[in-house]
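Problem 12. The chain below contains 181 residues. Write out its predicted structure in token notation.
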Amino acid sequence: MPRKVSLAQFSWDATPERLAKAANDNEIVHDKEENGAPVSRRRVMDWPLARLRSRGLLDADRALNEILFEAGELYYAAWYYAGLAPLCAIDYGREHVDGGALQGLNVSEYRLAALERFRRAGRAMGDCAPIVDAVVLNGATVSDESGEGGAAKARGMASLREGLRRLAQRYGMIEADRAAA
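Solution.
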């Protein structure tokens, strides 16, 4: 007699661990119908900067909270489009021995402009750049970068906020007097 075996149920949703990590930082997005059936997707925002934004921890003012998040996104975009992300970086120091075309060395003007935007933004942040780079570019949490203690985390958050304010001012998203507030 054949034995009944129970198979594990497959779920297209995020894992329970990922949902627990994201806490309330996820939403169900209803898309257009595909093949006559409505499609719903869960968007999990577990990028540390997105979590800080959704919890209102970048700034108490909701509008400034959004502006600081967008400044971080612009900084990330400049870094990514400059080709500095690990998966798209070009190793200019690599020796080319195949005798063929030097692929990857024909850098587009757009990429060079993104690199210049990234460098200028980094200079504008000054001493706040390391924490902003860690959180925005590398996906580290403030605790990972500054330390677990309450005072260390508070200093890290203050430095992150100041760096994002300087970025927002650099990008023309806020005035200098609002950045100092």
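Discussion. Helices lie at 16-22, 48-54, 62-81, 109-125, 129-137, 142-146, 150-170, 176-180. Students who got a different answer should revisit the alignment rule from Section 12.3.
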